[in-house]
């Protein structure tokens, strides 16, 4: 794969003094893995403009020498009219002009990924629909780890604790104290109020935390009961591990089990990564701000007549998981071998008694195990899947049953292992070697999907599928189910 490095990434692993820059150790690990596995690391000619702005001539020259070790992207694509229309015009040689040139490289398919810590670039990438191709450094590292090396155990799991079991001196709360001057007093009140918290443990202290507040009547005009995420935080060193999705996965299941009308939280506009995550899972900003100047993001869990025009996929994002529309789409059974089922759906394995909910139990420390957005690769000849189609993942060979239901986001077919690794590396179960083995067997179908629910207590067995005439026999490949059993299926997995 070709990684285009923003200037702030290119120099991170080359310190000019005895003090390392923040994130330097991540940059060094990324460079090591990329070099070991022969990935292409390049920089954009326009990035030199960033260094030419440095007033100190000695520092400027030192930075340029470090930058010079990377090969330049040759004949980079020009900024297109469509990109200008979406992002607006810029002044020549300005920061924005450089950003436009970097984005043009991924828009024009000259690079697989742009690696940058610049939040403005990430925001512009979302406007262009290129968010998956513009990634943070730690995400680039985790992508390579997922493709090339198993990650260490033990697996993470969400635990439910009382707030008083936590300590406000944990480093994870440091930025919250800076954002909210009265945070420590509020934390003491939450502790005395027997509030619940969801936590993911890190190597030293907390990796992620979500403090909950159940509200019989919601604030800001929201219909009660609401589940408020009073604090939602993932440590910066754990970015890329999908711990945000892991917390949301657990929150969604808890809200569903408790019949909450919705979920909401407040967030400052500068926290763009969190906002992007929220918006990708159906939270929308209300037309108001708190006294502290925060935005209010809310997610309803029950459909309203005003939004009946949503597509099946939009319906799921807005109200789920779990939330499926069974019509006018078609449902498909997707057979999956036990080894891939265990890796892709670790939360469908026997639960960990110490975990909060089965949704958070037994999860792999590899990021895709924590995620709600995933990819499945196979050699199926089926080309019938459409966005919004429900997917019944059938665990073949041993259990012979459906434990997990998903919803299709998109599909594509490729004969190229490099293209497959580049396009699904952030979601995939497979290593590069395993992808290459799939390609040897023929064209590879990639299903990009979202996990909707896990049928832990009452999976749908092969006998159920055949008796209800959803299938004629055991599925050898992706199979569209019969219409006769759809009424039974909808009643069986009713939300």
TrEMBL record:
<feature type="domain" description="N-acetyltransferase">
    <location>
        <begin position="171"/>
        <end position="302"/>
    </location>
</feature>
<dbReference type="Pfam" id="PF00583">
    <property type="entry name" value="Acetyltransf_1"/>
</dbReference>
<dbReference type="InterPro" id="IPR000182">
    <property type="entry name" value="GNAT_dom"/>
</dbReference>
<dbReference type="InterPro" id="IPR016181">
    <property type="entry name" value="Acyl_CoA_acyltransferase"/>
</dbReference>
<protein>
    <submittedName>
        <fullName>GNAT superfamily N-acetyltransferase</fullName>
    </submittedName>
</protein>
């Amino acid at each position: 794969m070709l990684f285009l490095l923003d200037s702030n990434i290119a120099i991170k692993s080359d310190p000019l003094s005895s003090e390392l820059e923040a994130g330097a150790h991540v940059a060094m690990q990324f460079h090591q893995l990329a070099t070991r596995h022969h990935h292409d690391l390049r920089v954009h000619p326009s990035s030199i403009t960033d260094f030419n702005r440095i007033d100190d001539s000695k520092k400027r020259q030192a930075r340029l020498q470090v930058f010079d070790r990377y090969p330049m992207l040759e004949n980079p694509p020009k900024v297109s009219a469509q990109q200008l229309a979406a992002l607006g015009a810029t002044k020549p040689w300005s920061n924005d002009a450089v950003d436009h040139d970097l984005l043009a490289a991924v828009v024009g398919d000259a690079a697989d990924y742009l690696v940058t810590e610049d939040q403005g670039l990430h925001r512009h990438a979302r406007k262009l629909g290129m968010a998956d191709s513009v990634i943070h450094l730690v995400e680039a590292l985790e992508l390579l780890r997922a493709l090339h090396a198993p990650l260490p155990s033990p697996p993470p799991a969400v635990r439910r604790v009382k707030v008083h079991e936590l300590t406000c001196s944990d480093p994870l709360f440091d930025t919250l104290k800076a954002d909210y001057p009265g945070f420590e007093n509020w934390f003491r009140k939450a502790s005395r109020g027997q509030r619940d918290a969801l936590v993911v443990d890190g190597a030293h202290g907390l990796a992620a935390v979500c403090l909950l507040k159940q509200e019989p009547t919601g604030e800001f005009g929201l219909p009660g009961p609401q589940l408020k995420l009073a604090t939602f935080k993932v440590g910066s060193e754990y970015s890329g591990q999908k711990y945000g999705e892991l917390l949301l996965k657990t929150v969604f299941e808890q809200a569903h089990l408790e019949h909450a009308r919705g979920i909401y939280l407040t967030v400052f506009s500068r926290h763009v990564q969190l906002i992007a995550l929220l918006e990708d899972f159906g939270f929308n900003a209300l037309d108001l701000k708190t006294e502290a100047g925060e935005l209010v993001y809310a997610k309803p869990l029950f459909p309203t007549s005003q939004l009946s025009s949503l597509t099946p996929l939009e319906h799921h994002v807005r109200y789920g998981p779990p939330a499926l529309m069974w019509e006018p789409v078609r449902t498909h059974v997707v057979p999956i071998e036990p080894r891939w089922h265990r890796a892709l759906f670790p939360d469908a394995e026997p639960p960990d008694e110490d975990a909060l909910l089965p949704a958070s139990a037994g999860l792999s420390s590899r990021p895709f195990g924590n995620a709600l957005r995933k990819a499945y690769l196979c050699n199926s000849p089926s080309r019938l899947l459409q966005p919004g189609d429900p997917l019944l993942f059938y665990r073949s060979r041993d259990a012979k049953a459906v434990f997990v239901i998903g919803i299709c986001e998109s599909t594509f077919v490729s004969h190229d292992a490099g293209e497959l690794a580049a396009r699904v590396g952030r979601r995939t179960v497979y290593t590069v070697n395993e992808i290459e083995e799939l390609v040897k067997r023929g064209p590879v179908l990639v299903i990009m999907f979202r996990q909707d629910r896990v049928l832990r207590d009452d999976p749908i067995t092969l006998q159920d599928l055949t008796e209800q005439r959803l299938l004629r026999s055991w599925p050898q490949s992706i199979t569209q189910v019969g219409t006769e059993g759809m009424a039974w299926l909808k009643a069986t997995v009713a939300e």
